[in-house]
Amino acid sequence: MDGHHLCSGMEEFFSSRRNRLDKQNIKISGKFVIEHSTGLSGPGKSACVQIYSSTELDPNTSSKGKLSEKACLTKGKSSKKDGTKVTTYKIKLYVEPEFGNPGAFVIENNHNHKFFLQSATLETPDKLAIHFDCRSWVYPIKKTKTTRVFFSNTCYLPSQTPPALVELRKEELQSLRGDGTGERQEWDRIYDYQVYDDLGNPDKGPDYVRPVLGASVSHPYPRRGRTGRPATKNGSINLDTYVPPDERFSPKKLSEFIANVIQATAHFLLYEAKSSSRDSSSFESFDEIRDLYSENRSQVKKGQVREKMKKLLPNELLKQVSHASIEDHIKFPLPHVIRENEWAWKEDEEFGHQMLAGTNPLRIRGLKIFPPRGSYIRKSDIAHNLDGLSFEQAMGQWRIFILDHHDYLLPFLTEMNSEGVCPCASRTLLFLRNDATLKPLAIELTYSVPSDDNELRSRVLLPAKEGTDRALWQLAKAHVAANDSAYHQLVTHWLHTHAVVEPFIIATRRQLSVMHPVHRLLDPHFKDTMHINALARSILINAGGIFEKILFTGKFSMELSSELYKEWRFDEQALPFDLVKRRMALEDPESRAGAEILFIDYPYGLDALDVWKAIKTWVEDFCDFFYKDDGSVKSDTEIQAWWSEIRNVGHGDKRNETWWCQMTTKMDLTETLTTLIWIASALHAAVNFGQYAYAGFPPNRPTQCRKFVPEEGTMEFAEFLKDPDKYFLNMLPERSQATLGIALAEVLSRHTCDEVYLGQRPTSEWIDSYEIKQKFDKFNASLQEIENKVLERNRDSKLKNRWGLIKMPYKLLHPDATKVGYRAGITAKGIPNSVSI
User: Fold this and answer.
1) 27, 73, 373, 780 - which has most CB atoms within 10 Å?
2) Which residue numbers delimit the Lipoxygenase domain (predicted)?
């Protein structure tokens, strides 16, 4: 037989054998959807997958499910969705009839580039569709040295895991924990803890030394994600700080975020360019401040802003944004606080309104004991101003409130005073009027006097309607606003949302398998948080960062945040607990919300209780489906390890506190999960997305004061009498600090286009349970009902605090649960699922 006939015969033999084998085996079809960053090609033949059975053990290993042969991803079909290239690959796999149902697959990337695996679907011969909600980066195996495993969207408690998947579940969790050594590389999928040891930069000099936060009695703090980079090495904006790949911004969001930063920086630099020729660092008039929002660009030469930006921002940021986008959009948008009435912010009623519906509506509380400890405010100072009530009646009816920024600041005042600012600690008393507006009664300011051996001195100022006393009162309110601004950024916003959530994210990734139902529940509420926190450590909270530049707390900012972490309790972040503790609500065990608001015209409190109730109902429905009784919580090994790690490691400086729940009942679990979801979604939305509306105008919410309220008989008082408005303007942050603060508020207040809001999931196949999807639809419907309630309340003219004198409707807790990612920009509404900006 010649060679040609021999080869032909062998080919026919093997082809016939393959056909017989294929007829004996069964076919599993697969569809894999991959997104690409700009400039990256698809994986082509360089990526292959293998399927694990979830029901049949491999007799050769006896510990893992049967594993199919490899199939390559080839001949993908590409399309574009919202500007992103998406390629769909279809595969066919033949497995033995006893293979069982697929429950996991491994993918190997032999390509030169990473790719983003969006989803996968496998279909068995009996038309059973098995979905995989992947949404994860897959890096080249030459970097990772290992394949990636993905599990289907079926959830199992640890004790219910199919035997064929038990070992895979354990291995996957172990791989995510690492060994706590080495510097992390971009492709590492490792979650570990570290203290805040990277805020300082001693190489720049002693002024940039900062204490390590965490793992100490004097400076306790939540843990952050470990990067492995050297401690206290901090430079300019660093987009390459390690964050586990699945916690990073999407390429689209990163590009949008950078564009927003560039635009806000251009606004800041435009004003710097226009102000460089002026002698004074202070604003010279209110008209000059309002000019920040003008379209007049006549004083700026073409390219001037970009040239200045080159000195401020690294090239990797600048090269991603076009020259035109910098030069053509260089005005600040008009903040709402001056949009309808440019002087309403000065009124006492608006001052009180913002404590109930502004950026920090969580600090005000009902006054329980008068006078406050150590206070110089006397009954005679306020008794005449209670709208006809006696002092005793006002106290008995819970009508006197306090905004307290006093005692926690006292230990820092002297040192802050030496830093070129004029810090005060403040107490503000307010009276709840019959129309539910708050009327300020008195402001107590305490400050350090350098000429008297840093003696602390206090003075009480009372409201006035005209003349010199009115102008002095306005100065006192500015000091209160500066206190509240710093507390809001360092505690209410950064510490109580960003920082306290990060340990929960790390523990969830390390201790709860992606197959665990609680992991599936929490996952959308962790989106982008670790990445934005990493950026904050290199831009906002670091030595010489934006917070130190704009806040009166200066280089003591994070030390102060650490001091107030000593008071933090996770259980008190549950909304009902917080409202009742602050005497803004009454405990109501009979209601699902757990509390009844004290007066309905508290916009934050009223809307918040509705959202809390909806979240709690959803969490209870979810947990009831997976946990039949208390014993199933107690016996859940992953939940117990998760909770132990949060208490003892992630928030390890609080490990000995007695207020932690024991996590032995369904109530423990549902209350914990409700509180965590509340913090990550609605609480963060309430304190973040209204920043530009209020803080975008520095006189309304200054971040520091450069002058004290002058005392009669001093040179400062003579200066004040000569021109009270000029004294007020000189008290405000200087131009550069003020415009930097405006730029920051602009960036932080913007929603991005890929935002996923409360009551939404990025895909309908996030879980395979029809019952859970029904309960989730019910949750979404309840949020849409809340939207209607919010709009209805805003139409009620009797509820004055819904709008305030600035005529801005309160919509910060309007969920926007109907469409995914459609409200990009500064909207002052919408509740994203996570702390994502």
Assistant:
1) 73
2) 155-837
